[in-house]
Structures are given as C-alpha cells and as structure tokens.
Design brief:
alpha/beta, Archaeosine Trna-guanine Transglycosylase, Chain: A, domain 4, Rossmann fold, single chain, 5 domains, 5-stranded parallel beta sheet, 5-stranded mixed barrel, 25 strands
C-alpha cells in the first residue's frame, strides 16, 4: 500500500459524507487548487479520515457565486494544519488509496454483500438497474463504499464506514450494516402484511356474511335466526318475569342493530351470562336430620358441637317444609366456622352438601381486594364479567347449592372498594333475596343458597359482617380425637396414596399417639397427616426394594426411625425451675399455644422494658401487672425498696412472632411476683386471665383452645377467671378428668395457687 504526504486545502462538510468514486457539486471557492480534502464535520467535530477529491469543473452561478464539481479519489488521514495568508486552512494528509490485493476472505465478503444488497433491493422493488450497478463493481473497497449512497444509514454510520481504511474491515462493516437494514425492512414488511391480511380478513368475513344473509333469504329462512335461537333459550330458561323483560329488551336491541356491530358482541356476551344462571333449576333437597348426622359422623370424628348445630339447622328446615310454614327470607342463618387450620372446616361444607343432596361450590375469598369480585363489573367496562357469586351459581347448575365462602377473615380493601361491604348484602337474610350483580343488573334470589363461611379468627372480620353470621367454633382436637381421626381417615388415605394395601401395613394406636404428641403440636390434623405420609413413604420404599416382606405393623420404634428426632417436648418443669418464669396460655389463628413469660430486673434506672413483638394491648397488660404486684408488695413480703431505682424486663419468647391480647395479664404479674419473691412458679400450673389495676381477674376468650394446648404440654393445673367457669362445659370430658381447673377472682388467689411455698436462694439483690 502506498502512503504519501501531501499538503491539501481542507473543505469541511457539515453532516455530509463524500466517499471515493462519488461525485458532488458544492457551492464553495477552492481558488486554483486542483485537489482538496473533504472532511465530514458535525457540531465542530471533524472525522479522522477524509476523502481526497479532484476538481473536475468550476461553475459560476447567477449572482456571482462560485461552485465546483468534485470527484472522490481515495481516503486520506489528516495531519498538521496551518492557515495561509488568505485565511484558508491547509493540512498535511497521508493519502491511503485502497490495497488492491484480494484474498479468499474478501471474495466471500463480496459475495455475501452482493446477496444482502440484492435482497434489500428486491424488498424495495428495484427495477434491476441498481443491482446491475452493484454487480459491475469489481474492487472490494469500492463495493463497500456503495453503502454510503444509502439514505437509510445515519451520518455516524457513514463516518464509521469512511474511517474504515482497511478494505476487509470496511467490507465486514458494510455487510453488518446492510444485514441490520435488511432485518429492519423484513420486520416492516411482515407488519405491513399482517395489517393487510387483517383488513382483508375483515372484508372477506363481511362479504361472506352478506352472502350468507342472501342465501338465507333465498332459502326462505329468517335472517334473524341467531335472534330466534336466543329467544328460544330465553323461553326455556324459566327466568323470573323481571329478568325475562330485561332479556327481551336486550334481544330487541340486538335485532335492531344487527349481528355484525361491535356492540352486538357485548349484548351477546351479556345474554350468554344471563342464560348461564340456572334460574329454574333446583336440587331436590333431602332434609333428614338422622341421615345428616350419619354422614357427618362418617366423614368427621369429634366436633360434636358443630355437628349438633348443623343437625338442628336441617331439622328446623324439615319441620317448616312439612308443616307448610311459608319460607321467611329474613330467617336464614349464615353458619360461620371459625377455627385453626386443619380442623376440617372446608370438608364440613362438603359433608353438608352431600347430606342434603345439594351441589357444593367453594369460593376462596382470601386476599380479595376488589369489590367487583363479588358484585361484578359494570358492562361499560372492557372485559367486564359477573361477580363470583354468579359464576358459582353457573358452576353449581342450581339456585340452591351450598356455597363455601373460604377465608372470609382475610378479605382486604383498597382503592377498588371494600369486598366485605358487598358481602353484607350477600350474607344478610333480609337482603340477599334481591341481590343485584353489577354486570347482569337484575335481581338474584340467593335466599335458597346455604352459605357457609370459614375463617381462622373473628377479630379480623368487620363488625357489621360478623353481626350477620352465626359463629360455630372449631377449637381443635384432643389427643384421643386425633388418634381416632388418624386411624379412621388419615392413615387409610395416606396408605392408598402411597400404593400400599390394607393387608400389607397396619399401625398401632401407640404409634399414632407418639406421632401426635412428639412430632406435631397443632389444633388440627394437617401436619399429622404429613407425618403419617412420611412414615408410609419410607415403608413403601422398603416394600418396593424388597427389604421387608408384608404384612408390616408400624409401632413406636418404626415411627421414631422414620420421623427422626423428637420435635416437641414437655419443657414446663425445666423452664419454670427458676424464679421469674410463668406459664401462660394463648389462643392464636392456628390454635392454642403455651407461652413462657420471663421477667428479670437490674439496678439501672426506673423503667419497664418489653420484648417479644408485643402488641399495644399486651404492653399495657405488662404495665398493669407491674403496678398490681407493687400494690401487693406488703402482702407478698416484698420490700418496698425492691422497686426503687430498678428496671424490669419482661420477655415473651418466640420473639419473631407478633403477639397481642389482654389474657396474659395474670401470667405477667405472676412472673414479676415470682422474680421479686424468689419463689418459682409450680411447673404443673398454667394460667390465663386479664388483670386490672385493683388486681381483679377478668374473663377471656378462646378457653377451649388454650386448655387443649395446655393439656398437650402436660399441664395439670389451669388457673382461669371465675367468670369463665361456665365455659368449662365446652372442654372434652377426658381432659376435665385429668386437669384441675382453678377459677379465681383476684391476683391474690392466682399467686397463692401458682407460687411455690419456699423461696430459692439467688445472687440477685432485690
């Protein structure tokens, strides 16, 4: 490649790129110069490489202006610049004509470049002249420079091509740029074809529909056969008169506007949903209290209170029907099953439906925040749909199903409305006989529907909604009930799921009780079923591997081998062995629980520190407890100075779990009294009750859940408020036989029952 230094006049070109072999006419004055350097410029920034151009003609324009015709020769790299006496800028340039050496790679790039360009020209509808021009160029460098003629490339891309002095690099860049251009043109062509085909399809459908109408006319058929089809369906739907009038109005609108307009689609969707409601269909109800009890007993062990209330519901309905008492649409009961997870709330609903011969539909309300989920969307919105109740009736196929409203305590609210407010109308027997869905905009009689709601707690259910419900508590199962459930329901189900036959594997009651007491501590039986599934999977593995021969009896040792180390312990004696720890009982959304409330003191300041993620109510209970113990200091033999300049710290373990409620009041007071008297709390004692500043013990809720949790933890003496004495009737008899209950009215009685007689020696100076 030859490289020479030449002094040339610099001609800047604003946003224009001139390539070698390109001719251009510019309105500039180059004086007597025969050769100049054309350098692209953008915003006062010059390109690194320019084009050496030969002056082929000088032109004088009207008005005295001068112009020159230039022809690009080859590339050159600009060097040092200087200005002459007339103010013109000259630069030293290193001329860089193209290397004419051609190798195999360059030939491949030439072929690829020509193929891509010809494809582009074909997409653009070239008549062949440009393609012939490209094919006539034999030099690879000049071939790459033809990309500079394209108006589709940006100024920056053309400068990049000009600065590619090496021929191979330039041709590779040109191929890349042309490929990007081809891809873009192909996308545009595809989009254009899709749009054209869509328009053609609509036109074709329109013509075909008009032809179809003409054919129907020739055959003597009514052009409104679609309308007649809807009329027939409406006539057979057994709609109430008001709904029938609405359907007829919509049919008349559809008939007037024709079947091809956009609004016709909206009307047809509306009519389809109106017809989807099973207006005249009802299940033949079976009202037999004895049969209902048999079904409930077969499906569920325990839960006598729940079963009794459901049987009463069926019995009342039977008497009203047999004696011809007119159905009072304001007397319906909305049964609401409240209790921990895994206690069988949802499956009770299925049993009720089977016992009464009704269809069963489940609606999960957990996390719903949009009121339209209940009432539906108005038809003015795009994509509008009826609410879940209309869809539930459609799925059931009858107007009197059992609809299970699951997780009603987890309904939310935001800017889209309050679904719980919409549920007020649904669940109110005085209103739900005329429920109006926003989409259908007609009255729906929901009074024949048996609504059964479920939830984990009543505290998160809005008051007005809870007022319309009859709450039935699911407080959990005792160990004996869990053994019966596991033996009669869970074990057979898991055995079948794990591919084992009844004659191949059996389990002892002792093994079931071990799994319940040492590996699960829950109100329900969901985790218990998982643990039994683990035992049976390991057994199935041994049978499939031929390690053991059936029949196999699963005993306590087999359960321990399958489930590993013990997960739950009876730690009451260990935890309460030191002063300042008391055993409290709590009711949570997942059942009852045992809390070990700890108290300590140190001689620094005068404050009460509370830890363990306690809620506001529980914090107030701790402050009241400290004040109560301080007022009883003399009777408890506590020195008054024990409270001076001392800070007390009350902690409720499981610090990651939020806790709230007033029922830990007497437990906190007992822990503080134990700390100050150095008398440990008896390890057999658990307690629950709210405390006042005067030391009175107030009643609490969730007693059954708390007692069952205490019983499972091995507690044999439970202190409860006197006013909760009547709630002891809810406690299973086998628990009452083994646990001693101590109803109390004041904190004095609590401390007498809970604290040991003798104080322990302590290094803590009180």
């Amino acid at each position: 490649m030859s490289e020479t230094l030449t002094r040339l006049l610099l001609v800047p070109l604003d946003d224009i790129v001139v390539f070698p072999n390109m001719s251009v006419t510019l309105t500039i004055d180059v004086g007597d110069e025969d050769t100049v350097l054309l350098v692209p410029k953008h915003e006062n920034e010059y390109a690194k490489v320019g084009t050496v151009a030969e002056v082929t003609d000088r032109i004088r324009l009207p008005g005295g202006a001068r112009a020159v015709a230039l022809s690009g020769l080859h590339r050159a790299v600009a060097g040092a610049a200087e200005t002459d006496s007339t103010g013109r800028l000259f630069v030293e340039v290193e001329e860089r004509p193209d290397d004419e050496t051609v190798d195999g790679r360059l030939r491949e790039l030439e072929v690829e470049y020509r193929a891509v360009v010809e494809e582009i020209l074909e997409l653009r509808g070239d008549d062949g002249r440009i393609a012939a021009f490209v094919r006539s160029i034999s030099e690879p460098g000049a071939l790459a420079d033809t990309s500079g003629y394209s108006p589709d490339f940006t100024f920056e891309q053309k400068v990049q091509l000009l600065e590619a002095v090496d021929v191979r690099t330039r041709l590779e860049l040109a191929v890349e740029l042309q490929r990007e251009r081809l891809a873009l043109m192909q996308v545009r062509r595809r989009i254009s074809e899709d749009v054209e085909s869509g328009v053609e399809k609509q036109q074709r459908e329109y013509i075909l529909r008009r032809q179809l109408e003409s054919i129907r006319k020739e055959l003597g058929e009514d052009e409104g056969s679609v309308i007649e089809e809807y009329r027939q369906k409406v006539a057979e739907a057994e709609m109430p008169e008001s709904v029938l009038e609405q359907a007829e109005r919509e049919l008349s609108r559809l008939e007037r506007m024709g079947d091809q307009t956009p609004e016709a689609t909206v009307i047809r969707n509306y009519l389809d949903w109106l017809l989807a409601v099973p207006w005249g269909k009802r299940s033949e109800e079976r009202l037999d209290p004895i049969y209902t009890r048999e079904v409930l007993d077969k499906d569920h062990a325990g839960l006598d209170d729940v079963k009794n209330r459901i049987v009463e519901y069926i019995a009342v309905a039977k008497l009203r029907k047999e004696r011809g008492i007119e159905e009072d649409k304001r007397s319906g009961a909305i049964l609401t099953l409240i209790g921990p997870p895994g206690t069988g709330k949802t499956s009770i609903g299925e049993s009720i439906a089977r016992a009464t011969g009704r269809e069963f539909v489940r609606m999960s309300l957990g996390g719903i925040r949009d009121e339209a989920e209940i009432r539906g969307h108005r038809r003015t919105y795009i994509g509008a749909l009826p609410g879940r109740l209309v869809r539930a009736l459609r799925d059931a196929g009858t107007m009197n199903p059992v609809i299970m409203l699951d997780e009603v305590d987890k309904v939310g609210a935001d800017w889209r409305g309050d679904p719980s407010s919409a549920l007020l109308e649904v669940l109110d027997p005085a209103q739900n006989h005329s429920f109006r869905d926003h989409y259908l905009d007609v009255e729906l009689d929901l009074s024949e529907v048996v609504f059964i709601a479920t939830g984990n707690m009543t505290e998160t259910i809005p008051g007005p909604l809870l007022d319309r419900m009859e709450v039935i508590r699911f407080d959990g199962y005792t160990t004996d009930e869990k053994v019966a459930i596991a033996s009669g329901y869970l074990w057979p189900r898991q055995r079948e799921r794990n591919g084992l036959r009844e004659d191949e594997v059996s389990v002892t009651d002792g093994a079931l009780e071990l799994a319940i007491t040492e590996y699960t501590r829950e109100a329900g039986v969901r985790q218990l079923e998982r643990e039994l599934g683990t035992v049976l999977r390991k057994t199935a593995t041994k049978v499939a591997s031929e390690e053991v021969e059936p029949p196999i009896e699963i005993g306590e040792d087999a359960v321990r081998e399958a489930l590993g180390r013990q997960k739950f312990y009876r730690e009451t004696a260990e935890r309460t062995a030191v002063p300042g720890v008391a055993t409290g009982l709590a009711a949570t959304a997942v059942g009852g629980d045992v809390l070990f409330i700890e108290a300590t003191a140190h001689g620094n300041g005068d404050k009460l520190v509370l830890t363990g993620q306690l809620g506001e109510v529980m914090k107030e209970s701790a402050q009241i407890a400290l004040s109560s113990v301080r007022s009883l200091a003399t009777r408890l033999g506590i020195d008054e100075d024990a409270f001076d300049d001392r800070s007390f710290h009350v902690h409720v373990p499981a610090g990651a779990i939020p806790k709230d409620g007033p029922s830990a009041g007497i437990t906190m007071a007992t822990a503080l009294a134990s700390l100050l008297t150095q008398r440990p709390v008896k390890h057999t004692v658990g307690m629950t009750g709210e405390i006042t500043l005067q030391g009175r013990v107030l009643p609490i809720g969730g007693l059954k859940q708390k007692v069952l949790a205490a019983f499972a933890a091995g507690i044999t003496d439970i202190i409860i408020p006197e006013r909760n004495r009547g709630d002891l009737d809810e406690i299973p008899q086998n628990v009452r036989d083994e646990v001693t209950f101590h109803p109390v009215m004041s904190i004095d009685e609590v401390l007498t029952l809970a604290l040991e007689e003798q104080a322990l020696q302590s290094n803590v100076a009180l």
